[in-house]
Amino acid sequence: MLRKIAIGLLACMALGVCHAAAAEDGWISLFNGKDLDGWKASEREGTFTVKDGELVVNGNRSHLFYVGPVNHGVFKNFEFTADVKTTKGSNSGIYFHTVYQQDGWPAKGFECQVNTTHSDRKKTGGLYNVQDVMDNAPSKDDQWFNYSIKVEGNHVIVKIDGKTTADWTEPEGWTPPRDAPGRKIGSGTFAIQGHDPKSLVYFKNIKVRPLDPIKVVVVTGGHDFEHDPFLALFEGYGDIRPVEFVLKDHSELFEDISGWDYDVMVLYNMTQNISEKRKENFKTLLSKGIGLVALHHNEGAFNTWDDYRKIIGARYPLKPQDIDGVHFETGIYEHDVDMNI
């Protein structure tokens, strides 16, 4: 059970979200069905509204970009799904690996076409201008259909109602279409397209399942522990990539964070010394959304840094001390169940 709890905490921290929307199978809702929280419209906000739990797209050209907390709004490898309903003559699209821009058609990333009966010959299920579905749409107007996009490495699969409509691998040395130089596999967010005032398209059940492994740094040092059994807690999960960092100078991991490449830090150290520079770097990581899980002995770490107790929510006092008007007696460890932490 402890192992499941620890891994669940890591997943929530790395995704930047920990609530009921994150299901056990990894799917996370991006749209709450109530408002546009977590989304940002370009050009004309009025093109996008919410009614009866559905995202209604109707109005002048605009794009609705996901800017919410899940994965910090950056997705590389993922599965995406949404239920979509077109109306006669309507056009829309779903972008991935894109980035917010205020005006025009998104220059970065790929568009997955949404078009059942619009005059454009490129129809629903195609990877626009890369691997198109021509003339015969796999969708029908006024009927809900499921739109699925999976990106893993350089491989993109698009499915409509479970049937593959585009299966494309970006080749080495890929040259994008001349009019769309930003169509390259990379990373980025999602966007919903508002195409024109005559188009009316509905979306609901917009979800994502990130496929990137969570990069975890397990920080140890300052006390003895059963090393191998503890590290085994993080094994056997394909979506977690743990690395142990043993502190030898109390806090050197936070001396230079310019090349920081971890999603979550699991702190199991009980080291003490931390300079002002390292404190600020530590806080900077948290402000950038890096997840933090503090375990057991870490309650006794950095005992002279008053803010650390507030950050992790507890302190195991190594000597009597007063913090913010609260008195802490020295912990005696065994059976010490009635004490301030």
Uncertain residue segments: 17-21
Task: Output the structural class.
Answer: mainly beta
The profile of the biggest β sheet is: 8 strands, antiparallel
- According to CATH, the homologous superfamily of the largest domain is Exo-inulinase, domain 1
CA-to-CA gap between the ends? 24 Å
Q: Overall 3D geometry? A: elongated
**What's the alpha carbon Rg, rounded to whole Å?**
24 Å
CATH C-level name of the largest domain: Mainly Beta
The averaged pLDDT comes out at 89
Number of strands: 21
Q: Tell me the number of helical segments per DSSP (H or I, 4 or more residues long).
A: 4
CATH architecture of the largest domain, by name, is Sandwich
Percent in strands: 25-35%
What number of structural domains do the residues give?
Answer: 2
Question: Under CATH, the topology of the largest domain is which?
Answer: Jelly Rolls
Secondary-structure element order, as H and E?
A: HEEEEEEEEEEEEEEEEHEEHEHEE
The helicity comes to 10-25%
How would you describe this structure to a colleague?
The chain has helices spanning 2-15, 227-232, 276-287, 306-312, and strands at 28-29, 39-41, 48-51, 54-58, 62-66, 78-86, 91-98, 110-115, 122-127, 131-134, 145-152, 155-160, 163-169, 189-194, 200-210, 214-220, 240-246, 264-267, 291-294, 321-323, 326-328. A hairpin with a 2-residue loop joins strand 3 (48-51) and strand 4. The chain has 341 residues and is mostly beta strands. It has four helices and 21 strands. The radius of gyration is 24 Å and the shape is elongated. The chain is 11% helix and 35% strand. The protein folds into two domains: 31-210, Jelly Rolls (Sandwich); 214-328, Class I glutamine amidotransferase (GATase) domain (Rossmann fold). The strands form five sheets. Strands 1, 3, 4, 6, 11, 12, 13 and 15 form an eight-stranded antiparallel sheet that branches. Strands 2-5-14-7-8 form a five-stranded antiparallel sheet, with no helix packed on it.
